[in-house]
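Problem 12. The chain below contains 406 residues. Write out its predicted structure in token notation.
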Amino acid sequence: MNYKKTVGNSQIREDHKVKILNYIRINNVVSRTKICKDTNISKPTVTRVIEQLLQEGLVFESGIAEGESEVGRKPVYLQINPTAYYCIGINISKKNIRASVIDLSMNIITKKTTSIKNINEVEEFNETVLNCIKELLEEVKNIDKTKILGIGIGVPGNVDYNNGVIVAFASKPNIVNVNLKSYIEERLNLSVHIDNNAKTRALGEYWYGYGIGYKNIIFVVCSEGIGSGIISDGNILRGKNNETGEFGHMSINVDGRRCSCGRYGCVEAYCSLDSIETITKSVLKQGRKSSILEAAKGNIEDIDYKMICQEALKGDLLCKERLEETAFFLSTGLANTIGIVNPEIVILSGELFDENEHFFELVKEYTKNRLSNTLIKDVVFINRKVKDSLYEVGAATLVYKRFFQD
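Solution.
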């Protein structure tokens, strides 16, 4: 649904409506007087547009505004009506589908998690995504379907953003050239928008998260793989094939470890969960001593990243070295990217940071040490927890961005 196409009689009026509605969205609670002042739209026009938005149920009045000096009657707050419309936001990882029904104010109405850990074929993958959405819709059957604007989906891997095709799903070699957009639209009669999930997360941060107020953002997720999304001057940086931001496959050691992509020395070859665990196990098999062997009850194959973090915090030298080396390589890639993009804020997310808060501080310190003094002063570093719902919200933003026409 495109808001510009559904309201207003002239282009100017449409533009005013979109501008005012978006202003209310961004500022959450605001008076007519503040809208006039900050948008430079005349008072009669603002009054007329607000009346239309009230009639359409897109905004509502929520009481008297405090702290605004104005002669006579105090101004009234205006807010987006969160129940005017809804959408479905879906974040797909290599293991799970996390799906939520989200209202116009980005509140989670209901959510569902479905495993795809053992799914490796296109048909089963499509059916699982579809069934997850159907079950979610069944939970909110009291919501009129005409109020659901669409479905936003974030997927790991190479995505043809314009056509809604998953060109290659990361770590699932058989899931290629999947027109998931058409598959779902034909069966549910809802519009679907699909993008790489690192990009959807970056978009979610820009619209609703830590990125509010910033125009240039780097978002990096470090979990099963390494992904990133870049916001430049308020827009997702895509490049010719929507491949901009392949941070995980930046080479930071040309003679280094072989990566899953077939090349050598990629960030992901050192900094993904699997890589960290594999390197640790390899060193132990070569005879290196470590308290982690006792923690794993002697079974090297049972060792995982969480265990490595726990032993590092206890002071185990091998585990500390592993995290420090990971931070070294990750910060190398980050510093290179920051030097090119020149962001205002860098948001780091993923299991690597969730399992060990010290690791975030280590990466931040190493990265800053690699930057010029000018860049250090400008860059803000933030840690986004994986458990936060912004991953699904980011996918939903694919839909709401079109509605609000930001």
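Discussion. DSSP finds 16 helices and 16 strands in the chain. Students who got a different answer should revisit the alignment rule from Section 12.3.
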